[in-house]
Design goal:
This protein is of the alpha+beta class and about 100 residues long. It is built from three helices and two strands. A hairpin with a 4-residue loop joins β1 and β2. The protein is elongated, with a radius of gyration of 21 Å.
């Protein structure tokens, strides 16, 4: 926590507070970063991109039932995600072809 008296001893690096007003969502976001040179808009875009990655992995865990990756190489992860997406698409096609209304997840 950065509000305690000993905050500086636990985190001596200076931080920059970046505020971003998103007109599309009508929300204000506040970020802390140790990057002092990048423009505020770019910092906000980087955080937004990171959030999209988090949402993607959340979707993978919920819909593809991938709880952990079997291997850590880039090719193995891509293969496992590709197979999961392919199976999910096949299930969606079958659901539509058979006229099923209940969830298959």
């Amino acid at each position: 926590m950065l509000t305690k008296e000993d905050s500086f001893s636990t985190c001596p690096e200076p931080f920059r507070r970046v505020r971003y007003d998103d007109a599309e969502l009508d929300k204000r976001f506040v970020f802390l970063t140790n990057n002092m040179s990048l423009p505020a808009k770019l910092i906000a875009d980087l955080y937004r991109s990171r959030w999209r990655v988090e949402l993607f992995f959340k979707w993978i865990k919920q819909h593809l039932r991938i709880k952990a990756f079997d291997a850590m190489s880039e090719n193995a992860v891509k293969s496992q995600i590709g197979i999961g997406v392919s199976v999910d698409l096949l299930v969606a096609i079958l659901k539509k072809e058979l006229g099923l209304t209940q969830s298959l997840h």
